[in-house]
Amino acid sequence: MKIRKLLPGAATLYATLPLMVAAPAMAATPATDPASLLARIEKLEQALGDARHEADMAADRGDIENLFSNYMYLHNAFQDEKIKALWAKRGTPGMSAQYSNNGVYTSYDSIMAYHTGRPTPTGKLIFHYTTTPSIQVAGDRKTAKGVWIAAGQASQKICRPTFHFFKSFSIQTAT
Fold first, then answer.
1. Domains in the chain with CATH codes
2. Which of 38, 65, 135, 175 could disulfide-link 146, Cβ–Cβ 3.0 to 4.6 Å?
3. Quick count: other Cβ atoms within 10 Å of Cβ 3?
4. What is the pLDDT of residues 122-139, one digit of tens each?
5. What single string gives the DSSP state of each residue in 117-168?
6. How many C-beta neighbours within 10 Å does residue 15 have?
7. Can you give the pLDDT at residue 35?
8. 60-92 pLDDT per residue, tens
9. With b meaning 16 or more CB within 10 Å and e meaning fewer, what string describes 107-127?
């Protein structure tokens, strides 16, 4: 029975229902008659199911936020080959990524190409931290969409300046 699967104590309720109906001293009232109790149990089962669904969606959202945090950690560490494993699998409908003003990548192959062969220059520092996650998990929990602002900084390779020395030069001063 459905009730026994969701509520372990339901067997006790079913054992006492015949007593409640048969006992002459226990007149059925609207709050305690078997039909009202069963209706209440159904409402509680529905509320429990709704609460579990909301908790599962919140857990999904947390998993997505952690996934993107792992992505940014790997990005900051120039570990793009490891980033590839975090992406949805080839053939996933609706897959896309946007990296600042580099355009929107709308296929698995273009996203993987973006993360292939990324240089790892010695001395370059990237520090991007994520803020303002906006994550929407679909009601069926099969898909989700998210956007983050990844504020931060990146250093550039500093070139040594080139100095030109001349053997002879003259300086004119104002007199």
1. 2-50 (no CATH), 63-154 (3.10.450)
2. 135
3. 17
4. 888 888 888 889 999 999
5. S----TT--EEEEEEEEEEEE-TTSS-EEEEEEEEEEE--PPPPPP----SS
6. 9
7. 92
8. 999 999 999 999 999 999 999 999 999 989 998
9. ebeebeebbeeeeeeeeeeee
